[in-house]
Every structure is written in C-alpha cells, then in structure tokens.
C-alpha cells in the first residue's frame, strides 16, 4: 500500500526536490503549532495525506473552507513546490511506534533535505542552556543558526538525549545524513507565544518568507485553550 495519498490532480513526483519540514510530536506540541503558522501564513496547499494506522484516528472539518475533512497526518506544500510540510493531528499508538518511525522515515527519505522540528523539556536543561537562548540546532546546515546566536545542542552522553521530544531521536538518527534538527526548550501550558518565537527563528534560518510582517494563526486557535470564561461569574 502506498503511504502517501495525493489529492486529485496532484502529481506525487512534485514532492521530489522540495525541502520537507517535519514537526515531531513533543512537549507542548510546539512543532505542530508552528506548522499551523507556516500552513496558514505562507500559505501552503494541502496536497495529500499519509495513509497509516500507527496514529490515533481523528477527523474534523477543514479550516481552509474546502470540502472534505482533516485526517491525522496531512501533507502541505508551497505553490512554488520548494517547501513541503507535514501536520500531525493525533499521537502515535503506543504499540505501533516502531512502524510509525519506519513509515515516516520512508516518506521523508525521498527528500534531499529534511528539517525536523522538536521541543525539549525545559526542566531538564543544563546550566549552560538555562543562561542562553531557548533554541538549539543539530545536524546538517547549522551555519546560519550559529550566525544567529543559536548554539549546537550540547551532548553529554554517547546517545542523543532529547527529554520530552517523543520519537524525535529515532527519526533523526535514521535521517541525520540529510536532516537539520531545530529544538526549542519548553514546558507544558499555553505555548502559543513559544510557537511564534520558534517560527520566527526557523523562518530566519530558512528564509521561507523574507519579508514576513506577522503570522496568520488558524481559526481553531481561537478555542485552543477553551472558550473565554465569563468574568461576571467571579464578581
């Protein structure tokens, strides 16, 4: 079975030659929030989805006013075909994590360049990381990040240690010959501002949109943390 299912009239060969932006499910869901900003600001078109049983099924109305429904892992692309971005809307099923990693790597392997986005538990930072910017970078093409004052990730163990980052390490290690890993330290909570700062950093490095003035969040963000409370109840 083919993992990538394109929308009608989209040629899957147009994925090749594009850079893949791959947000990993991690603490605060900052990568997914950042992907939301990319999709709705640049904007990116929905070109297909990944047909997989490794994540929890989920479906809802589309936010772009088009007919149809969202599915757990969707694929978006810029109109110049330069950038492709995955959006994952549900977590991985516990007993299928290895299959999930294998399928994600299989899809990502067709791209010449992969940009992995993840977040790490800020409570597990080293002292040097506390007194520094909240970002780190690792892998290929790190020069621009270093010029912007973002250090490479400090490694204190032989095995890559990324607390709070879910399956990031497993995916990165299989793609590290073509991948750049962008990391943000974070805690659970209202992570909207974190995603904006993460998006600013990534856009500064990749220059997806050089003259970016402001981000356009999706409508769903209006209810991201529930509906506004009625202040009169507390008077």
UniProtKB/TrEMBL annotation:
Keyword rRNA processing tagged: no
Pfam families associated with the record: PAC2
Superkingdom: Eukaryota
One CC-aspect GO term: nucleus
Coiled coil: none
GO biological process: proteasome assembly
Keyword Chaperone tagged: yes
Keywords associated with the record: Chaperone
Function comment: Involved in 20S proteasome assembly.
Family classification: Belongs to the PSMG2 family.
Subunit structure: Component of the 20S proteasome chaperone.
This protein's name: Proteasome assembly chaperone 2
């Amino acid at each position: 079975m083919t993992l990538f299912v394109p929308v009608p009239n989209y040629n899957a060969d147009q994925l090749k030659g594009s850079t893949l932006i791959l947000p990993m499910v991690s603490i605060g869901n900052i990568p997914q929030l950042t992907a939301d900003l990319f999709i709705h600001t640049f904007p990116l078109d929905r070109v297909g989805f990944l047909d997989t049983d490794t994540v929890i099924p989920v479906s809802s109305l589309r936010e772009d006013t088009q007919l149809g429904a969202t599915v757990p892992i969707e694929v978006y692309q810029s109109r110049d075909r330069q950038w492709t971005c995955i959006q994952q809307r549900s977590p991985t099923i516990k007993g299928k994590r290895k299959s999930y990693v294998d399928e994600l790597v299989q899809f990502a392997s067709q791209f010449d360049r992969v940009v992995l986005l993840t977040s790490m538990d800020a409570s597990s930072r080293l002292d040097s990381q506390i007194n520094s910017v909240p970002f780190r970078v690792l892998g290929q093409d790190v020069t621009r990040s270093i010029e912007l004052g973002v250090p490479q990730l400090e490694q204190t163990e032989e095995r890559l240690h990324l607390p709070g980052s879910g399956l990031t390490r497993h995916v990165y290690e299989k793609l590290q010959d073509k991948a750049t890993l962008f990391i943000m330290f974070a805690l659970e909570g209202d992570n909207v501002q974190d995603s904006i700062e993460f998006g600013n950093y990534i856009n500064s490095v990749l220059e997806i949109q050089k003259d970016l003035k402001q981000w356009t969040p999706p409508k769903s963000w209006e209810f991201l943390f529930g509906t506004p409370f009625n202040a009169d109840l507390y008077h």
